[in-house]
Amino acid sequence: MPASWQSEPSLHAKAIDRATRARVLAVKLLPKVQPAVRRFDASQFGLLTAYTYPQATRERLEVCNDWHVWLFLFDDQADEQEEVGQCPEYLQEYVEACLQVLRGRPLRTRATPLERFTHHLRERMSRLASEAWLERFARDVEDYLYRGTLPAARHWAAGTVPELEPYIEQRAMDSAMYTALDLVEFAREGQELTEELFQQPLVQRMRHLCARVVGLTNDLFSFEKEVLWHRNPNNFVHVLRVNQQLGLKEAIGEAIGVINADTDAFLACEEALLEQGPVDPRVLSYVEGMKAWIHGNVRWSMVTGRYSSPTSPFPELRR
Predict the structure, then answer these.
(1) What CA–CA distance (Å, rounded) separates 60 from 136?
(2) 121-173: per-residue pLDDT in tens?
(3) Are 20 and 45 a contacting pair, CB within 8 Å?
């Protein structure tokens, strides 16, 4: 990553962490038991949000952080709990209920904690964003669930390892990065992209590359948790090892090579975009937001307790 991508996180990191923690405890999405709360606190989700939306206002930053926590807590259920992650039919019913709430359906009488948390998010988003943005966000959540999470669940249930290229595209969806990039527009007032700006080919290409880079990078950091602990086959390093018959060290090197190539392609797209002439300030802000995600994801992953482990295959994470 270019040295110019260095940035300082928002000063609201600890405050938004405390606010999100209170909300997930209130709806019982996070059990009030010490191991679960300690793990939540050690993850420092607010720091990730502070790195990836450094210019966001406090109110909007809290919404962004709540969505990240929604994703991480749901991901833990889908990736670590076999009764959830290996039952695609149950998972589909579970997420469909949340999707309907996100699109404005009233809460059911017996709503799950995740549905209630989704309802809180929907209420706050609808006050701060346009209907067009909300619909785009909901579509990206739907793609995350149906084109990412459910295919991953089917592989885990069947005990199959995805093929390489289909997995890379699955991971771009399963990472939920498209929803996170929607929040780049949301994080500051006046930054929503018109449909014309959003659909520019270079913007779409950079969005796709950013999702790939962040998702595949995360697979490096989460390799021990996903593959060695939970035997989940949906991990880029594992997919490379199986498909290309590589040792662990070789697979890690190959993974980093793919990530670096995608980052180079992202930089080339940015250069081409700037060469086209005057660029709308909202597009420039969006590009900076994508850079913040690529860079901030690594900075956070190196310090969060979510991936640190004394038995990690990566010396940098053995804390």
Answers:
(1) 18
(2) 999 999 999 999 999 999 999 999 899 988 998 898 889 999 999 999 999 99
(3) yes
Looking at residue 90, its pLDDT comes to: 75
Q: For residue 316, give the DSSP letter.
A: G
Q: In whole angstroms, what is the distance from residue 309 CA to residue 318 CA?
A: 5
Structure-token pair, residue 11: 């000063």
- Per residue in 249-264, pLDDT (tens digit) is 999 999 999 999 999 9
- Cβ contacts of 181 within 8 Å, gap of 6 or more: 207, 210, 211, 286, 289, 290, 293
Helices 177-186 and 164-174, packing angle to 10 deg: 40
How is 199-262 classified by DSSP, letter by letter? T-HHHHHHHHHHHHHHHHHHHHHTHIIIIIIT-----HHHHHHHHHT--HHHHHHHHHHHHHHH
d(CA 267, CA 271): 6
Q: Return the percent helix, strand and coil in the chain, to nearest 5.
A: 75, 0, 25
Set out the domains of the chain in order of their start, with CATH numbers. 9-317 (1.10.600.10)
Query: 174 near 148, Cβ under 8 Å?
Result: yes
Asked if residue 17 lies in contact with residue 65, where contact means CB atoms within 8 angstroms, the answer is: yes
Stretch 300-309: mean pLDDT:
95
Q: What are the start-end ranges of the H helices in 7-87? A: 13-26, 34-43, 45-52, 58-80, 82-85
